Amino acid sequence: MNGSGPHDSLKGEKEAKQNGHEEADPGEDGNDQEVIVIQDTGFTVKICAPGIEPFSLQVSPQEMVQEIHQVLMDREDTCHRTCFSLQLDGNVLDNFAELKTIEGLQEGSLLKVVEEPYTVREARIHVRHIRDLLKSLDPSDAFNGVDCNSLSFLSVFTEGDLGGTDSGKRKKKGTEMEQIDCTPPEHILPGSKERPLCALQPQNRDWKPLQCLKVLTMSGWNPPPGNRKMHGDLMYLYVITVEDRHVSITASTRGFYLNQSTAYNFNPKPANPSFLSHSLVELLNQISPTFKKNFSALQKKRVQRHPFERIATPFQVYSWTAPQAEHAMDCVRAEDAYTSRLGYEEHIPGQTRDWNEELQTTRELPRKNLPERLLRERAIFKVHSDFTAAATRGAMAVIDGNVMAINPSEETKMQMFIWNNIFFSLGFDVRDHYKDFGGDVAAYVAPTNDLNGVRTYNAVDVEGLYTLGTVVVDYRGYRVTAQSIIPGILEREQEQSVIYGSIDFGKTVVSHPKYLELLEKTSRPLKIQKHKVLNDKNEEVELCSSVECKGIIGNDGRHYILDLLRTFPPDLNFLPVEGEEMPEECKKMGFPKQHRHKLCCLRQELVDAFVEHRYLLFMKLAALQLMQQKANKQENSATLENDASAENGTAESERPESEDGKIEDGVTGLDQVKELAETIASDDGTVDPKSREVIRNACKAVGSISDTSFDIRFNPDIFSPGTCAQSWDQPAADKNCSVAKSVAGCCFAGHGAGLCVKHREAEGRKQQWAAVLELPSAASQLELITRSAKHIFKTYLQGVELSGLSAAISHFLNCFLSSFPNPIAHLPADELVSKKKNKKRKNRNLGNADNTAWASMTPQELWKNICSEAKNYFDFSLECENADQAAEVYNLQKITLLREISLKTGVQEYNFDNRHKPTFTEEDILNIFPVVKHVNPKASDAFHFFQSGQAKVQQGFLKEGCELINEALNLFNNVYGAMHVEICACLRLLARLNYIMGDYSEALSNQQKAVLMSERVLGIEHPNTIQEYMHLALYCFANSQLSTALNLLYRARYLMLLVFGEDHPEMALLDNNIGLVLHGVMEYDLSLRFLENALAISSKYHGSKSLKVALSHHLVARVYESKAEFRSALQHEKEGYTIYKNQLGEHHEKTKESSEYLKYLTQQAVALQRTMNEIYKNGSNANIMPLKFTAPSMASVLEQLNIINGILFIPLSQKDLENLKAEVQRRQQLQESMKSGEQLEAEDKAVEEKEAEPSMPSTAIPLTQSSA
């Protein structure tokens, strides 16, 4: 995986990309053609549609004819047509043909839109499309989490499209100071304790929809009787216009017309006049003037919206709050809910989809060159997102009781379901499978572990090895696993099907040579060791995975693996094993600890980091020994081994002796080791025995399984309950144990620093952190409290009947968050829970608790349970008895607790204003959504381009970096479509590069897309979205859109307050931004409030002597200077000067700048004092010198904004550039030899140096902010 193969081909593709741009010479190299295929130039065709003027359309040769259909259905003037064909010279074009395959289609060709006769299917599609057009500005689908719609509020704060035609007007308006209203809402000001929820989802002006019709619904006279079918009737519609006219409409093969039916009389004859029209819109235009006017206005507004506000997201995003909305009549929604539609009949012939076949066929697509890989990855991604949507819908139907079980006679917990070719099972331990592992608790954890396994094997992507489509859904307190179905699995018993692995956790174990061969290909990237286990007959069986990983050959002949819940090594910190000693670091922290289940595994990031650390250690040890040999100071191998084991115990931060003097030696030594290791690995007899010895010693010291090369693997079955894994081959078993223990110790010894180590380890070490920094501590406690509450909420909900759901949830939230000591639960009205009904329905309720037991919960009891859950599960003692205490002791906000618990449980509340509603009522609970975990397929080529682009940017080659990132963006779009988290990251980096290279308007356009995408794909108040808002505000300011910049910063601050509260280091950066912009528009008092708050926060988190604090003092001093309060300005600047002097020395540029500014301030203060004295002395006759009270220039404000946001521009001479290039090349060599682990550390260090020392040579240093 880490070889140079993919990298070399990538280089070829990059060069090809550049050639493609410059000369477009396809003959040079195979890779050139790969990239050029994607970059075919487009051409223009003319479209002639009935009733409108012909117009031109830019198309690409790769497009299908169908895509032109989509464009026409989206255009304002042709959107009402759905049933038409495109004809070229009288020939109908095939919808699924690529344009380049159509004969005679060229630049300037005329395509005619020809109306076609309707079928029932086409008529349904038409009505559906018209309904979508009528609802196009209505956000209710986004609030309800339907059809991959999600919310975006950017346009509310930018008043439209930033890059739009009105930007000229806006710019002019922006520079006229008096027109800008800078006052933020009261709740955004520093120190405010108000956190209203209403502002989270501000009402968009466009959402008060223009009403076109009162009702459009299916008529009760459907379907047409036989005699009317033979007249061409397809279906009947019932419409009430805004003018209150009730009409019945027939959809026939020729189009739509009015008939003479009423609500109670069926008369299908055409009315007089019947207004026969091919489109429903044309018919309604004729019978309702209001419809005509409003529909046209609605479409104008629809096409003005940014495309990113309208495109569906790949996976559904749910909102945890929503306004209370009217429930309107909707024929399509009603039809979807009450038919057995699975959502795909319109598009897929043969009704339901064979998910397994689709998922596996897409994996089998060829992947030899770039176009093939793109096609394959696009297909894989599309099928996965469709499968996730179908599985989520099915899981909700299962829990809501809308799906019949395949084993209905068994107890409810044991039932399994099949719906839409997907298999569903519940997260309970039904057949004592997990008895030794923790019962129901283990059964609840197993699906997510399994999903992680599926994710990992999919990422390794070995040809011939197949995994199941897997989605884990948490809904209403239940965990549902949805899986695609292996062909033939339902026709036979599992015992007969499994030909590899074990179905009873290691009692009977079987193996299979083909599976061993396939799994061996995954063993190196996944660090899994081939090992033997003993079955119940004491026979050795060889495996290359954990014992419960099963291999089944389906009826389709494919080799499937499933139950991948122990793909990663066990976490020995939570698996006490008798007679096994843990490393000292673990013991000090009180580990190992007993946990509720025995499926605790290490995270993949930790395993990778550990292996990387060991690799660096291996290289250092070997280099050290080679250098000692070279110097002829050989010591005996025993001493070396002792040195090795001593170094083994040290933290990763240890470095070779000196950074400057001996680094060259180090590099050559490491190169030598690399060469030597490769020679030995290739079994070359030329290596002398001493060198072999060096490698062997290094291998032994780091725990490699091979003596000749570095290769660390883990045995996933080690210390596993019920598995005899270490009774054979004792040395190998011992080595496995020691490596597993080393990883356990690595969590504490500092090797894992900077890693998101498993939450339990992190939170269990809270006391250590608290001394260093309060913030991770507060974040950990928030996470602890809400996770513990979620565990309790899960079992609490299982005992609630559907009719009491909103009452039960509101009661739980009152107990969790309300200050009121004894909230009363509102039980559903008596007639709904009559005893008779209860008896009958008890079996249907998945929980076995009494249906009203939830109502007796009290806040005291809930918080007591939360504290004991935190102690039992996370081994952490919470010191609070209610929400108010928790907020006070751990510096948390109730609104943040509410947000966290809602996101974790899927609850959606009415976005009430908390001033007027102290507690929750059942009316406040609007919905409960599923929380969905699924596989996220990656676009590998695009990701490589993106990483290469980032590396180029970090080295200072901005133009090349920009080209690579642009290429990555194209490839991402190719695979993911228009909306995806990774595209968002691409756009953000592009915007930053555009900005650094001086193209402010392009930066603004790209960043606007990044914000919209972040809102739509991650959520409107996600930490990334807050950062995107901050970046956009900077680019707006640079484009002279001052009021917009302020609005965006105020929005970011509001979201920040809601999600984190005021006490957060990122708030300092945000307040500095706001303060600077306000300073720029001469709102000095307001500016000071924000800047002084930023100063206080920076001092708290970075220490009063840090460089950030010095900069903060300087910013405050500048505002005081503008206010002519020179004494305060001097005081702050002196503080800043002292810090610079102490930290950087007297001769540093920053110290000198500060010193100059102090002199200037002193002169101004003296001049002011003189003037004042003159006035006191001579009164009105005073001869007053004019004082300079200058408003700050926009350029100086922008310069300061760049500095605080980590963007530094430094003028460079030619000599500097040459030095820089040499330095970059030297560093590259060093990085290649030290591999990526140290590369990360070096970059971190470089970032710190750059922040501390802005005079370091570089064209522009884009420092990305740490995540909010």
Automatic annotation (TrEMBL):
Residues 1-33, 164-186, 635-665, 1230-1268 are annotated as: Disordered. GO terms for molecular function: mRNA binding. It is found in: Cytoplasm; Cytoplasmic granule. Residues 333-575 form the Clu domain. The keyword Repeat applies. One of its GO terms (biological process) is intracellular distribution of mitochondria. Residues 8-24, 652-665, 1242-1253 have a biased composition (Basic and acidic residues). Residues 635-651, 1256-1268 have a biased composition (Polar residues). Keywords: Cytoplasm, Repeat, RNA-binding, TPR repeat. It comes from the Eukaryota. One of its GO terms (cellular component) is cytoplasm. Its main location: cytoplasm. CDD domains: CLU-central. Pfam families: CLU (PF13236), CLU_N (PF15044), eIF3_p135 (PF12807), TPR_12 (PF13424). mRNA-binding protein involved in proper cytoplasmic distribution of mitochondria. Specifically binds mRNAs of nuclear-encoded mitochondrial proteins in the cytoplasm and regulates transport or translation of these transcripts close to mitochondria, playing a role in mitochondrial biogenesis. Belongs to the CLU family. PANTHER family: CLUSTERED MITOCHONDRIA PROTEIN HOMOLOG, EUKARYOTIC TRANSLATION INITIATION FACTOR 3 SUBUNIT EIF-3. This is Clustered mitochondria protein homolog. The lineage of its organism: Eukaryota, Metazoa, Chordata, Craniata, Vertebrata.
